[in-house]
Design goal:
Blueprint lengths: L6 H10 L9 H13 L3 H14 L5 H13 L3 H13 L6 H12 L8 H13 L11
Helix pairs in contact: 1-2, 2-3, 2-4, 3-4, 4-5, 4-6, 5-7
């Protein structure tokens, strides 16, 4: 429903799940968050993530990738950086999707300073887990 631009119906169904004794899983939340982001409903996306953090299910790497990309695409760069920091603080691994988001953020004008602390957090985290991850960013 979200992909077919029927977000209102999808939201009604999503909201009705608990009353039908169904508990939405992380994938269900991710689909709703992505639908809200696609429609520029950033606060609604953030509210769903807050609900996940408060009540479950646990957000995953995909959840954070959707949030980062969505805020970036809606020119909310500070929020995108905030969610990237949160993702790193929660020890989510970098993958192709969120690395692409980082690349886009780094390429944005005037944002170099915001990432110095983030890079300092990412590199020790990756090395302490016994792996060294090399990410090439064409900026």
């Amino acid at each position: 429903m979200c992909k077919s631009n029927n977000l209102d119906e999808a939201k009604k169904l999503f909201d009705s799940l608990p009353s039908k004794e169904f508990k939405p899983n992380t994938r269900t939340f991710n689909i709703m968050i992505q639908g809200f982001m696609k429609d520029g409903l950033l606060q609604e996306s953030e509210n769903l993530l807050t609900e996940m953090l408060d009540k479950g299910p646990t957000p995953d790497n995909v959840t954070y990738s959707i949030m980062i990309r969505g805020f970036f695409q809606n020119n909310e760069i500070d929020k995108a950086v905030q969610f990237l920091n949160d993702m790193v603080d929660r020890d989510f691994p970098l993958n192709a999707t969120n690395t692409s988001s980082v690349k886009d953020l780094l390429a944005a004008d005037g944002l170099e300073g915001k990432f110095i602390g983030l890079v300092d957090k990412i590199l020790p985290m990756r090395q302490s887990k016994g792996t060294v991850t090399t990410v090439e960013l064409d900026v």
